[in-house]
Amino acid sequence: MRKITANAYMTLDGRGEFPEYPGSDRPSDGVSALFRHLWFDRFDDVTTVIMGRRSFLGHQRTWSEKAVKPGEAKWLLDYRRYLDRVEKICLSHRLKSTDWENSRILKGDLARILTKLRHENGGNIMLEGGPAVVRECLRRDLADDYWFFVMPVVYGKGPRYWGPMDKQCTLKLVETKPGEDREILLHYEAVR
Ligand SMILES: NC(=O)c1ccc[n+]([C@@H]2O[C@H](COP(=O)([O-])OP(=O)(O)OC[C@H]3O[C@@H](n4cnc5c(N)ncnc54)[C@H](OP(=O)(O)O)[C@@H]3O)[C@@H](O)[C@H]2O)c1
């Protein structure tokens, strides 16, 4: 069965934003250890990436190879090429078509969509936001594991990861990794 991992990028107050903090804007020739762990080490095993409509359109605009910037580091190009070639699922009721290659648009109940994808052929599945979809996974126990990339900022604005839950959700900590710029990566598994 295909495994589903949900990625969450958040500030300390659980906002889905990417604020500036010391080191966050440092140009980097090489991929950071945390980003390698989240993405590059998974290029072979993750063959499907799921995103809500806003995240999907944002990623296409920012991260497809068409958006490459002159003189950009090679690792960023590798990431763009991976996102172009991987199968992408855009969750949307409104969007009827997309010109991002290797993409499908699905709609309906999230649990039903994820069950359908789990039974399709392929490698593992990554759910890459946005915050509302990750929260629904946690609330309904839909993913197998969760990676929280936590930035060292209390930001006070932006989309919220956390909201009302029907019941407590307890996870099993698998690993923690500190980042170069005071971020922390928390890897949790669902407890079943
Ligand atoms: N990984 C990331 O992309 C990421 C990480 C951190 C923060 N953020 C930030 O978070 C924001 C976007 O997150 P968000 O939570 O507001 O939006 P989102 O999850 O990217 O997109 C929400 C949209 O997804 C569609 N959707 C969700 N579940 C669906 C379902 N079961 N069936 C059909 N469509 C479904 C709906 O689109 P329709 O309206 O078309 O039905 C909904 O309006 C951006 O500001 C971004 O910068 C993104």
**CATH topology label:** Dihydrofolate Reductase, subunit A
In terms of structural class, how would the helical and strand content be classed? alpha/beta
Distance between the termini: 16 Å
Strand order of the largest sheet: 4-3-2-5-1-6-8-7
Tally of individual helices: 5
The total count of strands amounts to: 8
Unreliable parts: none
CATH architecture: 3-Layer(aba) Sandwich
Largest beta sheet, briefly? 8 strands, mixed
Attached small molecules = NADP nicotinamide-adenine-dinucleotide phosphate
- At the fourth level of CATH, the homologous superfamily is Dihydrofolate Reductase, subunit A
Q: Total domains, how many?
A: 1
Radius of gyration, in Å, reads 16 Å
Mean pLDDT: 96
Helix share bin = 25-40%
SSE order: EHEHHEEHEHEEE
Measured by DSSP, the beta-strand proportion falls in: 25-35%
The CATH top-level class label: Alpha Beta
Shape: globular
